[in-house]
Amino acid sequence: MRETKEVYLDNSATTRIAKEAVDAMVHAMTVAFGNPSSLHRKGMEAERIINEGRETLASLLGVKAREIYFTSGGTESNNLAIKGVAYARRRYGKHLITTAIEHPSVLEVFRQLEEEGFSVTYLSVDKTGHIKLEELEQALKPETILVSIMYVNNEVGSIQPIEDAINIIAKNKNTLFHVDAVQAFGKISLVPNLRGIHLMSLSAHKIYGPKGVGALYVREGTRIMPLFNGGGQESGLRSGTENVPGIAGFAAAAELVFKNLDSWQAKMRELKERLKTGILSEIPDTVLNGPENGAPHILNVSFLGTKAEVLLHALESHGIYVSTGSACSSNKKGKSHVLAAMGKTAEEIDGAIRFSFSPFLSVEDIDYTLEVLKKEVSVLRKFIRR
Amino acid sequence: MENIYLLSFGEIGLKGENRPFFERILIKRIKQALEGFEGVDVKKTHGRIYVKVVGPQDAVIERLKKVFGIVAISPAVSCDLDIDSIKNAALSAMKEIDYKGKTFKVESRRTNKSFPIKSPEISRIVGAHILKNLKGLSVDVHNPDIEVNVEVREKGFVYCKRFPGPGGLPVGSNGKAVLLLSGGIDSPVAGYMVMKRGVEIEAVYFHSFPFTSDRAKEKVVELCRVLASYSGKIRLHVVNFTEVLKELGEKGPNELLTILMRRMMVRISQEIATKIGAKALITGESIGQVASQTMEALVATNEVARLPIFRPLIGFDKVEIIELAKKIGTYEISIEPYADCCTIFVPEHPKTRPKLSDVHKAEERFDINEFLRMSLEDVEVIEVAPKFH
């Protein structure tokens, strides 16, 4: 196989771990390897790593350390938040609200809750992948106990109006607000005040940290039901011996991205603009999926008359790594539910490629990608489009 | 007294003059199948093979159940040829199984006529010995729960359990053929069925990156690993089919694309077969299952074949094929969703009744020999070792 260079444009699937995170993890695995629950010094060393990690995340978010709970990642955080609220507050009402474009780790939870007797309103989105605030306002009822809205959509990069949603939801005393911020945390500047959000899901491996660790922010005073029973770790909300190396790596990575947040955002936006403009102006029959601006790290484009999976492999043979729709759904038979909710045509969905950026890419990487795209798209169109 | 496995082999017992040949291959296959176990010793007696091996009985039987040529597997106790030893062996065999509250009878076979006691008498003596020494058993000669088998050969053997083997003929006893293996459900089953008749197979897979992903190739390797558990190592020839596919896709008439592809695949496989000394091709085709498997399409595919094409599934329904695929352990792998080139390149309206003249005309646009040269130049050969689950 020809592999000249490697251009990794799949950073919304996962990122390469940062050296800072690896170093912190190695220390936690080889030196401070104790069980945080042990009474001796080895246990205390490990406990200190967790506490410091918790404080780091809390200060980066501007919240209290005791509001951060570590989990095994975004999926668990979403499950814990949504089921945790639904089961703890079912006596206040059984109505829930979410959007049609959530990640499967949110949507599938709501589907299960529907089977258990909850009723769920799925907010629609416009052509660019944004919810409509009037629809949220109308959907809210006195018996609505939870609204769950993702911050940044993982497939098209649309940023939801979280601040406005906070204000709308705040009018309903019974309603808690959960935000899946897995694709926003460390990528864009979050709302200045998180107090209007009751629960927020985070993941480490999207921000150059390790896989298998994440966190859930739970605003003080918010009661939710745990998923696991056991030794009562994480104040009883998440039993199970803590993933100390994972937490160490998560905290180190979070520190790194927040230190560089402004410059990295700008860098990614520049790269994204360059590729977007290049594709749309130089390759015929291409359609932008999602907003003109949106999140700086996600670009979704349809190459009409191609099949995205074939194009993905063609790019792969040049060392360029991308996704079709989202990594989690590319192996399933169904088409992207996000693009479908945005009203995209079957041809647009079939040819949709997601490019997701990191600040470690160069302008040359982007120009190389554009050249390869021009060539491969025209080759594929010769015999796929008939 | 020791624990062994007594194997019976049905069909190859009928082979007359050729019998030593079949037996030799069967013994070789048994040894291969037990690779990784300690203390393997395989011996042949008249009409039986017995195997000594150290290891858990379930695991050993699982392996032996995959050796074509074996009809039945009995974990047995072997002993010296005197009636006291046989009596003790029978007790020992009984203690291996759950006999409490059950009925039994003793069935004896005396192929070694130098043994002084005749079969009915052996049965009576052994039965009485069991009754006297083990509690909670009674005799039922018509419909027993347990049949205690005593075989008097150059040694004595006693066993109470019989597991069916796969039957068929030992792989390697009937030449070699090339299996056209896709990632689908049918072709592995077709390979299994021909292997069962003693045919060694090498597989050919047409890889068309980027139209098929490397995961699709991994899947084919996995399928080969399962097939290899019935035959020993399988050689997989991965043909780079991309350039041929691109040209066919670009210049060929869309509605004949599948037929043109299949004709090329047969031609290429045939060249590989000739090179490795294989005498036939095997496909998973079944009449009418898809557009490329109508009578007319099969005729068009068949036309380019010099070698016979074996199509063991030709008269099978899809449900029957799926059932077999589940039984042999390939189904779960086959249904993984990584598209193969057939599914990506299926034309929207394929010709179900292609005329040979149209096919010939379509092929005039291409340099078939150049296609063959290109494809055969770029073949990766992978030795695939068995996977036992």
Please tag this protein with its features.
heterodimer, A: 386 residues, alpha/beta, Aspartate Aminotransferase, domain 1, Aspartate Aminotransferase, domain 2, 2 domains, seven-stranded mixed sheet, four-stranded antiparallel sheet, 12 helices, 13 strands, B: 389 residues, VC0802-like, Rossmann fold, nine-stranded mixed sheet, 14 helices, 15 strands
Which helices and strands occur, and which strands form pairs?
The complex is a heterodimer of chains A (386) and B (389).
Chain A: E1 7-8, H1 19-30, H2 41-61, E2 68-71, H3 74-88, E3 95-99, H4 104-115, E4 119-123, H5 133-139, E5 144-150, H6 162-170, E6 176-180, E7 199-203, E8 214-218, H7 244-259, H8 261-282, E9 286-289, E10 298-303, H9 308-316, E11 320-321, E12 323-324, H10 337-341, H11 346-350, E13 352-356, H12 363-384
Parallel strand pairs in A: 1-11, 3-4, 3-5, 5-6, 6-7
Antiparallel strand pairs in A: 2-8, 7-8, 9-10, 10-13, 12-13
Helix pairs in contact in A: 1-7, 2-7, 3-4, 8-12, 9-12
Chain B: E1 2-8, H1 19-33, E2 38-45, E3 48-54, H2 57-64, E4 72-79, H3 83-95, E5 102-110, H4 119-133, E6 137-139, E7 146-152, E8 156-159, E9 163-164, E10 176-180, H5 186-196, E11 200-207, H6 214-231, E12 234-240, H7 242-251, H8 257-276, E13 280-282, H9 295-302, E14 309-310, H10 318-328, H11 331-334, H12 341-345, H13 356-363, H14 368-377, E15 379-384
Parallel strand pairs in B: 5-6, 5-7, 10-11, 10-13, 11-12, 13-14
Antiparallel strand pairs in B: 1-3, 1-4, 2-3, 4-8, 4-9, 7-8, 12-15
